[in-house]
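Quick question, first post here. What does this chain look like in 3D?
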Amino acid sequence: MKVRVLSQAANIEKNVLMIERAEIIRQIDFKTHTIREAQDLMDWFDFERLRKLSELTKEYEKIGGTFLRSIEESAFRSRTCHHPEMLPYYQYWERRVFNAITKMIIRALAVNKAILLNREIKPLIRMEAGNNHLEIIYQPATEEMQTQLEKFHKGIIESTKFFGRWKNETCKVFLEQVDNETSEKMIKYTFYDDVIKNPVITALSKDIIDQVQKLVNKFDFYNSALTQSPLLKQLYDTNKFNHEQRKMEKHMVDTQQVELNIIKFRMYKHACQ
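> Answer (accepted):
Ran it through. Tokens below.
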């Protein structure tokens, strides 16, 4: 009996450490990675995160449903998953799971922050910029980019919602059910509400939100700097354009002015690069 109990306890320890050490957001080698479209990169991150979470939740459910039940059977000849003398053991392992999930989320948020702080020469995603007269157009738009980055951060935090809490005085996990109000599948009680109170997670989340805003502000700054450029304003001066057009219509083409405009355009293009 003792050997079996110790063996199952070792299995629990292994699964808890698996959660604790899990990388739900994979680290990126900025020097060798392939530059991707923003949506493609976010989809890849999300796919890998959900795949890893699916593996982890299966192992997590074995802790109560298989290993603790087996220990109960060895010690008390019952398989109820709510034996009163097992209560301190349930509480110990649920606390260990909580700590493991917290560390997993902290690691993922740290990777998220590192991505935003990347200063390598090679960019992470591909963005295109063009202009429509004095308006700079980005593809994807900065609003879309901000939404994607905020969704990425939110997805990390909400990964905790994949792990159901244990029912009171048991090791039975709250399973996914259809919510009567929203008709969506969800787990009623998870580790989410407790994990987000962790001060390290709170601080990392604030840093990430601030970095996303700084990134958006940079695009606004570049946009403002370019559109306020005297060179660009001259290039798109509608009064001058109309004046030159009227001269051309009267066959009084000022080739020197046309050449100057071409030079200005080349200078503007060089400034944008």
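The beta strands are 36-37, 125-126, 128-132, 135-139, 176-178, 185-187.
The two ends are 73 Å apart (CA to CA).
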